[in-house]
Design a protein that fits this description.
single chain; mainly beta; 10% helix
């Protein structure tokens, strides 16, 4: 990520002058001084400041990678600056989306996930794929013409 990071402890719109594709490296929860419910905070590979997720960005990542935050790690998102309505005013803000432009991604096409080795306890909780049983074909004798003539399928 090429940017001049502004002051502050968390990633903000001024830190992201151009959209950037990053890997989610870690997820935690933090309660802020405003007393609201805890918010998710994600660490991004190569980015020195973590990003606080608002509900919109959290829902976007859940839509991409599911509710289990442990499974977000190692996956890609694109972070970009935009404006949003806050307190009746348009203010700078950050949004996330599936990786686009320059990554070969196409809107509406599922993005490849980076496979990260999983801890055995996590792997044992994943569903086991079921294979469908297909019965072997039973050989059929060739059809015979009436009166013992040439087989019809010859």
């Amino acid at each position: 990520m090429h940017a001049n990071f502004t002051s502050g402890n968390y990633l903000n719109a001024a830190d992201v002058p151009q959209p950037v594709v990053v890997t989610i490296q870690g997820v935690s929860q933090k309660t802020f001084e405003d007393g609201e419910r805890p918010k998710f905070v994600i660490a991004l590979a190569g980015v020195p400041k973590p990003m606080v997720l608002n509900q919109t960005n959290g829902n976007t990542i859940v839509g991409l990678y599911g509710n289990e935050t442990d499974l977000w790690m190692g996956n890609l998102i694109e972070v970009y600056a935009t404006t949003t309505n806050f307190g009746g005013k348009q203010v700078p803000g950050l949004r996330v989306r599936p990786p686009q432009g320059g990554t070969g991604a196409q809107p509406g096409v599922p993005q490849p996930q980076i496979v990260v080795p999983q801890h055995p306890a996590v792997a044992s909780q994943l569903p086991v794929p079921q294979q469908q049983y297909v019965a072997p074909a039973v050989p059929q004798a060739p059809l015979q013409a009436p009166n013992g003539g040439v087989p019809l399928d010859a």
